[in-house]
Design a protein that fits this description.
Elements lengths: L11 E5 L4 H12 L3 E6 L4 H14 L3 E5 L5 H13 L6 E4 L14 H29 L2 E6 L12 H20 L5 E8 L5 H4 L3 H10 L8 H12 L10 E4 L5
Parallel strand pairs: 1-2, 1-4, 2-3, 4-5, 5-6, 6-7
Amino acid sequence: MALSYKLLAGKTAVITGCNRGIGKAILEGFAANGANAIACTRKETIEFSRFISLLSEKYSVSIIPVYFDASDVDEIKSAARQIMASEKQIHILVNNAGVGYNALFQMSSLEKLKEVFEVNFFGPFLFTQYLIKLMVRQNSGNIINISSTAGMDTYDGQSIYGSSKAAMICMTKVIASELRAFGIRANSIAPGMTETDMLLSLPKDVILEKIRKGGDKGICKPSEIADTAVFLASDLSANISGQVIRVDGGMK
């Protein structure tokens, strides 16, 4: 995003799933626009430590890593307490961490259903409950949930994944309604096909079906999702809440 001013200067954002794909692009987009960040990933790696160090130096922002497994309730609680104990004002929360899964409905097990929902919905639900306490005290806050067009449209083999993302969309709208009196707004970004490891992990026939339904642009770049997140995180979208923004190149 080439801008002559920084849309998120002075803001602090908590972003999950920052080590790759969309989350990594959002972290970079936020840093480029002046936001300090608490960058959450499942585990520490040399590559990620180097990445956030370079970003911090390049854009003169603070980036603090926090590590936790989004499917582990105890780790989620510990991470949330760590963030809350820092006494930083949290302006933005981006729930991005997630896992993909593809299987026909008849072949989808209860075990897999629980596994996907733990990461894609239960974890973000609990994490958001904790950080919203800070936002209520501040009487302000901005939540951005990364869902998917799979939570809105129909794709064979994505009953579990799509349902988990539909749940995120519902959570977004309820938060926006319940907490608007506290100056908190919430929106969801629903990416279509995006150049990530998750897309490449899908069977070829599923990818071809998605391409068939795609619009003129077809596959999106993570940076395009990040640009939308920057807009929703900024004051330019101050009167937008409870919405789902599709970034999918015009999928049918």
